[in-house]
């Protein structure tokens, strides 16, 4: 995967690392000492260090060196949606994908040294398994021709290493139904491959607990989000990351994100075999990326779009299962039967993406401009119409679009492969109606209009207040209608932060003692559903009608921000 290049600070460059390549590039590193031996001091600044043993007296000579138990910490990474370019991207056109504020959360806690176990808990898919650390195949992963270091590029899975971990994967959920066991085994494979590649047999006993607010199997990058969380946590444990902190230079942020992304891609290979790399790239870095793959024998082009504005997004899950392969085959068949027409539709979708990219990268682009948002929104509508022409929509997706379009509250399209899955709506900055009557073909009952638009037009503060009230009244009404028809609605944010860290796992939730509330494993497991998870550890404040500030404690790598 080729990305925009940058020169990393010399103090952050371990031997032979190539920061101008990405997760899909190839590299043959020279033999190097262990990561802990080569780690620059700068990378350990925010990490706990081993206790220094006494240096005087006979007792000091006899006392065994000890180190304090690391505090629990958390990692969070977002899901993603395709904003423009579905299906055309399969045929060599560009697409744009962006992060969403639905996220996975990983809690890492540590056990006493005598435990000598590592546990993976994923209650959302009813998975839990414990491995004996000393029995894992460390010898296989530490052979001279097999060993990988934190700065290495891994572009394919080693068959010998996969064979070495297979017996430990087979131990997971042996009595579960085949469909469930398959999911559990994929998760275990990703975890073990990363764990054995990055850790060592001296790793402290620990528990990895995963929770996710991202619907699984809906094309929203849930597996990539989890891979990013695991990659980040394990790199932190070997002190291979610096920050994140607010004074970090953009180049240093990029280096850390790239390091996380490389190993997250390895986790994705364990789950999907031959992933595109887009999902883990968006989840690692946040914001948005332009993605294009003209030749499947070559790495794809991936360009970060840090200028993509953070926008309120409505995401609706049809709960209709679909097959990406089936939908891709539909378009391929249509192209065979009607080659000229289909090619023109695919070209048009490619032009939609180009138009969005041109706007986002123009020197005078203003992310707060209503005109710019209108342009992006209209492209969403056009893109959906073209996808319908390809035959990849679904009656449930069209019903969602019909319900939302009737309110006039935003621009709606299917996202991903289609045939089910999810629809996204970029919300307009103002509701469609601020006075009685109709606008843009939409209509609201007079009671709503009278109660929410009674302020005088020349009082801007009142207009904003009533505008906000009306917007949320429409959203509340939409939620009822969509749920009554069996759909699942999420109010999210588009193009926000990528991977984040909460070190230590302490948050200020507004009702705890001074110093914050420690998030332990038990509290994390007891959080009920998405609402419970977000209320306990969510990255954003939970006030829907206020500004979605990042909660105190969570930190992110943000290369688009320049330190003052």
Automatic annotation (TrEMBL):
Pathway: Isoprenoid biosynthesis; isopentenyl diphosphate biosynthesis via mevalonate pathway; isopentenyl diphosphate from (R)-mevalonate: step 1/3. Keywords: ATP-binding, Cytoplasm, Kinase, Lipid biosynthesis, Lipid metabolism, Magnesium, Nucleotide-binding, Steroid biosynthesis, Steroid metabolism, Sterol biosynthesis, Sterol metabolism, Transferase. Residues 374-430 form the GHMP kinase C-terminal domain. PROSITE patterns: GHMP_KINASES_ATP (PS00627). It holds the Pfam family GHMP_kinases_N. Residues 13-29, 41-59 have a biased composition (Polar residues). GO terms for biological process: ergosterol biosynthetic process; isopentenyl diphosphate biosynthetic process, mevalonate pathway. It catalyses: (R)-mevalonate + ATP = (R)-5-phosphomevalonate + ADP + H(+). GO terms for cellular component: cytosol. InterPro entries: GHMP_kinase_C_dom, GHMP_kinase_C_sf, GHMP_kinase_N_dom, GHMP_knse_ATP-bd_CS, Mev_gal_kin, Ribosomal_Su5_D2-typ_SF, Ribsml_uS5_D2-typ_fold_subgr. It is found in: Cytoplasm. GO terms for molecular function: ATP binding; mevalonate kinase activity. Residues 1-59, 433-459 are annotated as: Disordered. Residues 204-282 form the GHMP kinase N-terminal domain. Its EC number is 2.7.1.36. Belongs to the GHMP kinase family. Mevalonate kinase subfamily. Mevalonate kinase; part of the second module of ergosterol biosynthesis pathway that includes the middle steps of the pathway. The second module is carried out in the vacuole and involves the formation of farnesyl diphosphate, which is also an important intermediate in the biosynthesis of ubiquinone, dolichol, heme and prenylated proteins. This is Mevalonate kinase. The lineage of its organism: Eukaryota, Fungi, Dikarya, Ascomycota, Pezizomycotina.
């Amino acid at each position: 995967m080729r990305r925009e290049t940058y020169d990393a600070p010399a103090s952050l460059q371990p031997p032979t690392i190539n920061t101008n390549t990405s997760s899909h590039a190839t590299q043959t590193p020279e033999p190097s000492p262990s990561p802990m031996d080569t780690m620059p001091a700068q990378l350990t600044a925010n990490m706990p260090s081993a206790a220094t043993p006494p240096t005087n007296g006979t007792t000091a000579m006899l006392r065994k060196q000890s180190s304090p138990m690391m505090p629990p910490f958390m990692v969070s990474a977002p899901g993603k949606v395709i904003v423009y370019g579905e299906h055309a991207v399969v045929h060599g056109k560009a697409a744009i994908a962006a992060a969403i504020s639905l996220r996975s959360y990983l809690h890492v806690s540590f056990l006493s040294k005598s435990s000598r176990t590592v546990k993976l808990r994923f209650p959302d898919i009813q998975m839990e398994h414990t491995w004996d650390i000393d029995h894992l195949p460390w010898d296989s992963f530490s052979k001279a021709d097999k060993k990988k270091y934190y700065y290495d590029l891994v572009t394919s899975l080693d068959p010998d290493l996969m064979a070495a971990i297979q017996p430990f994967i087979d131990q997971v959920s042996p009595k579960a139904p085949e469909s469930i066991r398959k999911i559990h085994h994929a998760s275990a494979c990703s975890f073990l491959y990363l764990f054995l590649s990055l850790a060592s047999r001296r790793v402290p006993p620990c528990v990895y607990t995963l929770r996710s607010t991202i619907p699984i199997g809906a094309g929203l990058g849930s597996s990539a989000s989890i891979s990013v969380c695991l990659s980040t946590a394990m790199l932190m444990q070997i002190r291979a990351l610096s920050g994140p902190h607010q004074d970090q230079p953009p180049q240093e942020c990029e280096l850390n994100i790239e390091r996380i992304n490389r190993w997250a891609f390895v986790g994705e290979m364990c789950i999907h075999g031959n992933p595109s790399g887009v999902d883990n790239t968006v989840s690692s870095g946040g914001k948005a990326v332009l993605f294009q793959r003209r030749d499947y024998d070559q790495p794809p082009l991936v360009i970060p779009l840090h200028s993509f504005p953070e926008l309120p997004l409505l995401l609706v899950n049809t709960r209709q299962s679909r097959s990406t392969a089936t939908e891709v085959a539909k378009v391929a068949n249509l192209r065979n039967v009607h080659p000229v027409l289909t090619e023109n539709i695919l070209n048009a979708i490619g032009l939609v993406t180009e138009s969005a990219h041109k706007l986002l990268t123009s020197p005078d682009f203003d992310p707060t401009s209503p005109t710019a948002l209108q342009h992006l929104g209209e492209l969403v509508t056009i893109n959906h119409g073209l996808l319908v022409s390809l035959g990849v929509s679904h009656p449930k997706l069209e019903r969602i679009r019909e319900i939302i379009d009737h309110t006039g509250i935003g621009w709606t399209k299917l996202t991903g492969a289609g045939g089910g899955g999810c629809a996204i709506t970029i919300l307009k900055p103002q509701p469609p109606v601020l006075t009685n009557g109709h606008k843009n073909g939409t209509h609201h009952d007079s009671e709503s209009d009278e109660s929410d638009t009674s302020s005088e037009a020349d009082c801007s503060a009142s207009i904003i207040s009533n505008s906000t009230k009306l917007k949320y009244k429409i959203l509340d009404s939409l939620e009822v209608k969509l749920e009554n028809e069996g759909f699942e609605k999420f109010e999210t944010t588009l193009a926000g932060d990528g991977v984040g860290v909460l070190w230590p796992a302490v948050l200020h939730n507004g009702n705890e003692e001074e110093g914050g509330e420690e998030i332990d494993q038990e509290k994390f497991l007891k959080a009920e559903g998405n609402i419970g998870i977000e209320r306990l550890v969510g990255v954003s404040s939970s006030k829907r009608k206020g500004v979605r500030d990042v909660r105190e404690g969570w930190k992110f790598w943000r290369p688009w921000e320049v330190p003052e």
